[in-house]
Design goal:
Elements: E1 17-21, H1 26-34, E2 45-48, E3 52-57, H2 64-75, H3 77-84, E4 98-101, E5 106-110, E6 125-129, E7 142-146, E8 149-154, E9 160-165, E10 171-174, E11 183-185
Antiparallel strand pairs: 1-9, 2-3, 3-4, 3-5, 4-11, 5-10, 6-9, 7-8, 7-10
Helix pairs in contact: 1-2
Length: 186
């Protein structure tokens, strides 16, 4: 296993988060992107309502490289524990895995559930990794919100990771639709 190329620096506002580029092996992420299912795959869970328009890929869709990547995430848990000051982190993929946002897709600003519906454990961190080389679309950016509105805007660029504490005040989403196809993350 490779060591992370950078030390994670947590920013505290609007809530504890990290944005880091190049923290994962680019070759492995390229393999993950290559096995990403086509948007027409019938196994996608499709969400289209007033809060979201997206596709979510459950575990049966995940390929070998994706499963290897999840192993990399678990192996680097110590660095995440240290950066956020949260000992004993354990990875769960409930709500995680493949995400694909079609042109015009969005995810309203929201705070995620704080307890795992399967294990009852508290969800402490969200970790997103983007797989979009050369992103130039003005839409589709992840936004982190505080009391006054948008405070952080993150372009969903290839091998960019966003990690943030999961709480009732960790408001986030990508409310501005993208025109580009696809916008994908793990």
């Amino acid at each position: 296993m490779q060591s992370p190329p950078v030390t994670l620096q947590v920013t505290r506002d609007p809530f504890p988060h990290v944005v880091a580029d190049g923290w994962w092996p680019a070759e492995l992420l390229g393999q993950v992107e290559a096995e990403f299912p086509d948007s027409g795959d019938v196994r996608w869970r499709r969400y289209e309502n007033s809060q979201e328009r997206k596709l979510e890929g459950p575990p049966p869709m995940w390929g070998e490289a994706t499963r290897e990547f999840f192993g990399e995430i678990e192996a680097r848990g110590g660095a995440l524990e240290e950066a956020f000051g949260i000992p004993g982190l354990q990875m769960e993929t409930i709500g995680g895995g493949y995400h694909l946002i079609p042109p015009g897709g969005y995810l309203d600003i929201h705070a995620d559930f704080n307890r795992s519906p399967q294990t009852g454990r508290f969800r402490r961190l969200n970790l997103l990794v983007y797989l979009n080389p050369g992103w130039v679309d003005l839409g589709g950016h992840l936004e982190l919100w505080g009391a006054a509105g948008r405070e952080v805007d993150v372009t969903p660029e290839f091998n960019r990771m966003v990690v943030f504490e999961t709480s009732s005040r960790s408001w986030h989403g990508h409310p501005r639709p993208a025109a580009r196809w696809p916008r994908s993350s793990r």
